[in-house]
Design a protein that fits this description.
Strand order of the largest sheet of chain A: 2-9-6-5-3-4
CATH superfamily of the largest domain in chain A: Dehydroquinate synthase-like - alpha domain
Order of helices and strands of chain A: EEHEHHEHEHEEEEHHHHHHHHH
Oligomer: homodimer
Helix content of chain A: 40-55%
Largest sheet of chain A: 6 strands, parallel
């Protein structure tokens, strides 16, 4: 096992009717930015609950943080925070709204163009942040319990991550009932997103990290067991709660301690979103099977373990077991309604040059846990996704 | 799943040669209490590493925090802290040293007799605490990443827990190499302690908490797989690291969120330690098998799941599978060198009245996740341990 530091101070308030707890959590602050997305929270009652809980505060609303939140949109919120001397930012939504709010919180007092800190994973660029909290309404990204974010630019194929301990949410409220009314596609995308977060941290080198391996397998099993339940019965509370908690645990740092991580599927996926606007979860479902097939020699021992522990595949030659596990995973993505080929989305061989160009531009020419996926191999992977 | 709050701000610094990181972690403080136990840290090099890392600080040493740390001992350290205006407490040792330092930290500024807050799990009694950090040298108790502690009194069969968020360690340094020289019995006791911590949170009601169940099973498997390795080869780094990390994860709050907990095995075990001085791990290995057999109807579904997921027992009648799983667990405890009957330690039927008297005195007359273990049933359980 490799050396590591684990630190995660996010307070999680989880369960039915927990949004009123917001009142206590923000009692120190008066001027609050209430940031959200397209307005679904006005239909499902979350907005009303939040406004009720903040009755004694001065609220400034910022609506319209889009999926794959855009620098240009977020900078308007940064201006609002500066003008109105906002003391606390409350993100209400899914990973895009929360990621966007992390950017806003860090940007308000940043000297220079905040785009400069996008791309920095060391945390060195960000010296301070306005405090923020979240109310999660879409389980998927895990942003509610980590200090990373992914930001895009309008009219540009740039979609890049940053991280800083300064942007850990002070608290995150997770009420599974807020997810009852999610569109089926968003629920399914969220399940794939969490699933691939786990495999990015699990299907790498064997580090003899027993707890991390068992926990990754446990989370994958939770998603496989509970995912079909929420799709069949969107108001199954326990299933919604399990998906929500599994998604949060998938990316809060516990799985990556002491082991190597991959993230190549995410990086290729980001380019597909940036260029063609595909949902994040969809891009992962497309890239993952080909990534695993083409990198199976790198990941052989872990894929074999995955086949046995997650899919119960014990018979046959090792290579067959691995192929069977990849196929079953791909079938799972399809079974929850997500097509797994580029051609299903009208993307063809002629589009691959452009994607490779983007990877090149973003310095993504040495991906994966071994940093051995160059642009040529990315091309092979994308071609295998057709 | 039940509603819950999860909050754990302890920074974990894990791995080889990590004790020098101490220098950065305590840079804000000058006057530091260095507290430890019987002095094994002077033999294994940990003491020297700590003193080197604290070269620029004023160190006050407090040696002699005993197993099952005693109020009377700890109050001497409290006086030292008050006299010397200690700013930070560094606990170097296992759960007893760390628990003792949590008491000291909370007691220094406490108005009244600090024994008053022992027994309080609500955190209401403790208004403030001196900051503390830990260097863990014995994986077992999990105290390095939680805010609870268990304190005893000299010349009295009192051994009682307390908890307060004020006593979360600011950091804990876990270097698995510091455990290479542990006596075999301490290593084995630690494995049993962690094992039973997990089952106290897992073998209760079925709460449909998928992640918590899978994670409990994963940790149990880690202990079963890695435990024999460390006993056979005490310098197997990865195995030591896995046991250390599993023990920490077993009691940091993640397993108990959203589910009911039991703790009856611990409460009976505490009385055995208080009255007869048995090691904590030993008491758990004695009580656990009888507790499971006598409470198996309460825990039926979970024990059945435990039999299948942890021991791979799939054949036979349900009750047989459960009995087989309990027997296999008991055999595991014996296999790592811990005898599992009271009679192995010279404790007989004539001693049970005294133990029941202690449980009565401590208000332990409604134990377990259903609060249905009264003194009569505790008597049956203890008799079954003979």
């Amino acid at each position: 096992m490799d050396n590591f530091i684990f630190y995660n101070p996010v307070k999680i308030i989880f369960g039915k009717n927990t949004i009123p707890e917001l009142t206590n959590e923000v009692s120190k602050y008066n001027r609050i930015l209430l940031a959200y997305g397209g307005g679904s929270i006005k239909k499902n009652g979350v907005y009303d609950q939040v406004v009720t809980a903040l009755a004694n505060h001065t609220i400034f609303e910022f609506q319209g943080i889009e999926p794959n939140p855009k620098y240009e949109t977020l900078m308007r919120a940064v201006e609002l925070c500066r003008t109105e001397k906002i003391e606390f930012i409350l993100a209400v939504g899914g990973g895009s709204v929360i990621d966007g709010c992390k950017f806003i919180a860090a940007a308000v007092d940043y000297e220079g163009d905040p785009w400069e800190f996008v791309g920095d994973f060391t945390g060195k660029s960000i010296k301070s942040s306005i405090p923020l909290g979240t109310i999660l309404t879409l389980p998927a990204a895990g942003s509610e319990m980590n200090c990373g974010a992914v930001i895009s630019r309008a009219n540009s194929p740039d979609k890049l991550p940053f991280a800083s301990q300064k942007v850990f949410p002070r608290f995150s409220i997770l009420d599974p009932e807020t997810t009852f009314t999610l569109p089926t596609a968003q629920t399914a995308n969220g399940i794939v997103d969490a699933f691939v977060h786990i495999t990015e941290q699990y299907l790498t080198f064997n580090a003899n990290a027993s707890v991390q391996d068992h926990w990754a397998e446990g989370l994958l099993l939770s998603l496989l067991e509970e995912g079909p339940k929420v799709l069949a019965d969107p108001e199954n509370y326990d299933a919604r709660a399990n998906i929500m908690w599994a998604s949060t645990m998938a990316l809060n740092g516990l799985l990556s301690v002491g082991v190597s991580t991959d993230w190549a599927t995410h990086m290729l996926g980001h380019e597909l979103t940036a260029k063609f606007g595909l949902d994040h979860g969809v891009t992962l479902a497309i890239v993952w099977p080909s990534m695993m097939r083409i990198k199976k020699n790198n990941k052989f021992n872990k894929l074999l373990r995955y086949a046995k522990e997650v899919w119960g595949i014990g018979e046959g030659e090792d290579a067959e077991k691995i192929e069977k596990a990849i196929t079953k995973t791909q079938e799972f993505f399809e079974s929850i309604g997500i097509k797994t080929h580029l051609s299903d989305y009208g993307i063809g061989r002629e589009d691959i040059d452009g994607l490779i160009g983007q990877l090149d531009k973003h310095g993504m020419d040495r991906l994966g846990e071994r940093q051995d996926i160059n642009l040529e191999e990315s091309r092979l992977i994308l071609e295998a996704c057709l």
